[in-house]
Design a protein that fits this description.
- The structure is a single chain.
- By secondary structure, this protein is of the alpha+beta class.
- It has a domain of 261 residues: Amidase signature (AS) enzymes, CATH 3.90.1300.
- The strands form 3 sheets. An 8-stranded mixed sheet has the order 5-7-6-11-12-10-8-9. A 3-stranded mixed sheet has the order 2-4-3, with helices on both faces. Strands 1-13 form a two-stranded antiparallel ribbon.
- Helix 7 runs antiparallel to helix 15.
- The longest helix is centred in the C-terminal third of the chain and has 25 residues.
- It is globular and about 65 Å long.
- The structure holds glutamine (GLN).
- The site of glutamine has 13 residues, from loops.
Amino acid sequence: MAKAVNTLAALSQQLRTGSVSSRELTEDSLLRIARLNPALNAVITSCEDRALAAAAQADKALASGDVSPLLGIPMLHKDIFCTRDVRTTCASKMLAEFIPPYSATVVNRLETAGMISLGKCNMDEFAMGSSNETSFFGAARNPWDTARVPGGSSGGSAAAVAAGFATLATGTDTGGSIRQPAALCGITGLKPSYGRVSRYGMIAFASSMDQAGPMARTAEDCALVLSAMAGSDALDSTCSDQPVPNYAETLEQSISGLRIGVPKEFFSHHLDAAVADAIDRAIKELEQAGATIVDVSLPSTDLGVSTYYVIAPAEASANLSRYDGVRYGYRCENPADLEDLYTRSRSEGFGPEVKRRILVGTFTLSAASYDQYFMKAQQVRRVIANEYDTVLDNVDVIAGPSAPNTAFVLNDQSKSITDMYMEDVFTIGANLAGLPAISVPAGLVNGLPVGMQLIGRRFDEARLLNVAHQYQKRTDWHTLSPDLGGLV
Ligand code: GLN
């Protein structure tokens, strides 16, 4: 274990004072990726030439006095974001050779802010998974212990940041895919409110829950990046036009007097006892910072996972119908006729977890099951969202664990499919309700990171980042990084 590498905020300072150039930072990152990625498989496409060209541009802008906070800083994108002229696979055979003709809004915004994209991160296929093991490109590994998973679906992004490839990677979160891998890799990850960040050009999984967000070392870094990522977009009608605050400006506010709700259902039998202790200590720390801790209840917490696994597959089955072997993506060899083309392209192009979701989703949307499953799940979703809203009328922020356990071993045969789905038992509620939530490093159990989750009111990312930052001022969990000496 070592003390922290640089944060994005620190690199930004160094770039502006000229003590380092964007070219140097970019070369350092590329070298680190070349050295460590064979052991971690966190990056599936790297863009050396483009990155170096962009860094040269950034150095010119810096020399001419441009002080934009993200200018010249290297970063990575989850491979779910379309990047113009750069392969975008969603970690699927279906898109293994797909080169998009346009970039996602998130990609464009961070590029406009001057960030240098180094490449694309591994993930679970079509963002379906909690371990990064469903990737067509093989599992990514957890830098804290390469026999263990980094979490998922944004597992490559989390592993890349934890291993110091870059200070920032983008992620997406439909049921927990930013927060759970952030927790398992000991970094900070923010899932914004639904509609805070444009989904344009982000390959769709479950459109009513998908959100993009920053994965970084600190809440401060997430604040800097969210300010650039968020905001209305004419290309995504579900993206809100609420003004985007400067999230960095409110980080230093005192949290004294703030009310923090702790749901008793988050400390259920699902939660590992040692993780529970770490989260208890983290919550005490918030109390010592002046917050008032309030016992609250979210009685339908246990219904979240089953509700999600009706709604998300239903939406996925519709979204994934576009991969038909005709328009783009994988096409089977020598189809006998059109039916054979559809069947074999999809059978050969999708992996088992994706097929499972398509089957479940197609079933629950069928005329005979729609009322019984899909409608019912939508109703339970409303109940869950109402419970969160009622609690958040009375408290400013909800606190609890991000994940029920620390990183588990790869290919864990004792873990069933439904055990895997339970990884998101504490994170899924925020997606169903559209609320912002963040995971911050909050301890180590047997040398593996634990994440505390904070959930806020809709569009109140500023408060979440403020509480997370104040916690990080009092603790140093976010400054720890794994010892990677043995991997080289
Ligand atoms: N683990 C959940 C799933 O497999 C969530 C994934 C996500 O948030 N993209 O669907």
